[in-house]
Design a protein that fits this description.
With about 180 residues, this protein is α+β, with helices and mostly antiparallel strands. About 20% of the residues lie in helices and about 40% in strands. The mean pLDDT is about 95.
Amino acid sequence: MTNFEEKTTNTTPIYSGRVISLSVDDVVLPNGKPSKRELVKHPGAVAVIAITQDHKIVLVEQYRKALERTLVEIPAGKIEQGEDPKETAFRELEEETGYTASDLHFVQSFATSPGFADEIIHIYVAQGLKKVTENRQLDEDEFVEIHECSLAGAEKWIQDEKIYDAKTAFAIQWWRLHRF
């Protein structure tokens, strides 16, 4: 196996925002030639597979500006600085869905777009779901509609591209394999 590592010789910051930062790295390729890499830095995220007692997955529908369309997704959100991913998962589940869980179990972590971004998403499955009594507090720029959907319904939404993101497609397939 060849060593594919690229050596960074310089990093030029381009932008630093609330959610991401952008930079351009000058690199030396394995063959010794120079190149550039445009990179997105992200603090990481969590997502929650939340299945109700009547075997429905809790999903959120929201507009995604990058795609200029509405998607149906599992609840998810950005990890705040210094926050444990499991704590983020509890927070996002309650904020986005109005549910809490007696426990969350880690499923898997994966890179979302490793060709240009360092974002890692941590997937949890919620156990012991129950509705919270007080009103949930969404972020000020968040507008969502909650759906509870059967496995067959969720698979249909994948076919219809209503569910169109990787984390939610992964969650539906995981649910199919681990039905409980």
